[in-house]
Every structure is written in structure tokens, then in C-alpha cells.
Specification:
Elements lengths: L5 H8 L9 H10 L8 E8 L11 E5 L10 E4 L5 H6 L4 E3 L1 H8 L7 E4 L4 H4 L3 H4 L17 H10 L1 E5 L5 E8 L4 H17 L10 E8 L5 E3 L6
Parallel strand pairs: 3-4, 3-5
Antiparallel strand pairs: 1-7, 1-8, 2-6, 8-9
Helix pairs in contact: 2-8
Length: 230
């Protein structure tokens, strides 16, 4: 077993590993136990009582975090010329179609989000095998296939994130950075967890949120009590 560093030992001394903290307490603690020197991401990990193999329990959706994620996302809009000006005015970093489809075929995927209009999805489908594994494939359920590209771009820039349950029944999502205040992290956590609660499938049996943990990059996790979600 790797030897614990002094910083990690000190961080663990602040935690009761058996205790479930309120959302508010957890967000204060996750800042205190951070051991990195950089502005680390703060994430939530939620184990759900669902069976992702069943279509109606394969949870996925989007949410706009009140304070964003602390990361400025680069956006590519794939559209025909009639939508290019709208996309550029809304703040898209890259706008076009054929040239970007070819660039992606050649290996370029240096963007965080790709938004496409419905009328170009036949061409976007050509690069689906490249975009899919990277989580970049536009999808109507995440609001990234839409004729309203201006609104979609603005939401992404404001802090809209997409999430989905993995094959183990866990949802992972960023909710900010350690430089955020505890209140900002709390607001973002409550917004995300509240959205997830509303999405509980009627066919899911037993406890829906089995466990919630928040952690910053490379730092100890803090358990969150689901009953304290605002």
C-alpha cells in the first residue's frame, strides 16, 4: 500500500469516514480536505438504485448549474450557412459543416461540446463512431440537436452540463472548482441533485439514491446525506 503523504493524513483527520454530511457541510469540507495546489474540479458521484440495462431506467439529462462549472467550454456548431451568423453571435468558438466533418474524420476533436441543427444530422452521422466514444455526439435529449442554436450555445456557456448513468448505475458530474465558495458549490450540488431526484423512474424499486460522495481531484471523498438535498 502506498504511504500516505502528510497533506493526505491531515485531510483525513478532518473527516469522519463513516458519517454522512449535509450538502452544506460536505461542500465546506470538500474545500478543506483538498490537497492539490491547482484549482481542482469538484465532482459528485451518485450511486442510483436503477438498472441501466432497462431503457426506462437509463437515466440521462441536462442541467444548468447556477454558478457554472468553472470551465469555459469550447463549442463547435455544425450547421448550414443560414444558421452561421446566429451561432457566431451567440459565442460559438467554431462554426461550419463540411470542413469540420472532414477535420474530425482526420482526427480533430479539440472541443468540449458539439451542437448541430437537425437538417445536417445525416452528415454528422458519418462521424458518429468518432464522436460517440468521446461523448461529443449531438443528441436531442441533451439539447445539442436543435434549430435554436443561439439558445443552446448560451446555455452551454452559462454552465449547462449533460449527464448519464453508467453501466454500474453511477452518475458522475462536475459541480465546480475548489476556488468556488462553499455556498456556490452547495447551490450547484442542490440544483443537480434536485434534478436527478425528479428523474426517478416509476419502475425503480427500493432506495433511489443509494450513496452520494463529493470529492475534488486526487483528494478524499466526503459522503453526503441524501435527505439534506434542498
Amino acid at each position: 500500500m502506498a504511504k500516505l503523504t502528510k497533506k493526505r493524513k491531515a485531510a483525513l483527520e478532518l473527516l469522519d469516514v463513516e458519517k454522512q454530511y449535509s450538502v452544506s457541510e460536505a461542500m465546506e469540507l470538500v474545500k478543506k480536505v483538498n490537497i492539490t495546489k491547482f484549482d481542482a474540479s469538484v465532482d459528485l458521484h451518485i450511486r442510483l438504485g436503477v438498472d441501466p440495462r432497462k431503457a426506462d431506467q437509463a437515466i440521462r439529462g441536462t442541467v444548468v448549474l447556477p454558478h457554472g462549472t468553472g470551465k469555459t467550454k469550447t463549442v463547435l456548431v455544425l450547421c448550414n450557412p443560414d444558421k452561421e451568423e446566429e451561432a457566431k453571435n451567440a459565442g460559438a468558438d467554431y462554426v461550419g459543416l463540411d470542413e469540420y466533418v472532414q477535420k474530425i474524420k482526420d482526427g480533430w476533436t479539440d472541443v468540449d461540446v458539439i451542437i448541430a441543427t437537425p437538417d445536417v444530422m445525416a452528415k454528422v452521422g458519418q462521424i458518429g463512431r468518432i464522436l460517440g466514444p468521446r461523448g461529443l455526439m449531438p443528441n436531442p435529449k441533451s439539447g445539442t440537436v436543435t434549430p435554436n442554436v443561439g439558445n443552446a450555445i448560451e446555455e452551454v456557456k452559462k454552465g449547462k452540463i449533460a449527464f448519464r448513468v453508467d453501466k454500474f448505475g453511477i452518475v458522475h458530474t462536475p459541480i465546480g472548482r475548489v476556488s468556488f465558495t462553499a455556498d456556490q458549490l452547495k447551490d450547484n450540488a442542490n440544483e443537480f441533485l434536485g434534478t436527478l431526484l425528479k428523474m426517478k423512474p416509476s419502475t425503480a424499486k427500493g432506495t433511489y439514491m443509494k450513496s452520494i460522495t463529493t470529492a475534488s481531484t486526487m483528494s478524499p471523498g466526503v459522503k453526503v446525506d441524501p435527505k439534506t438535498i434542498a
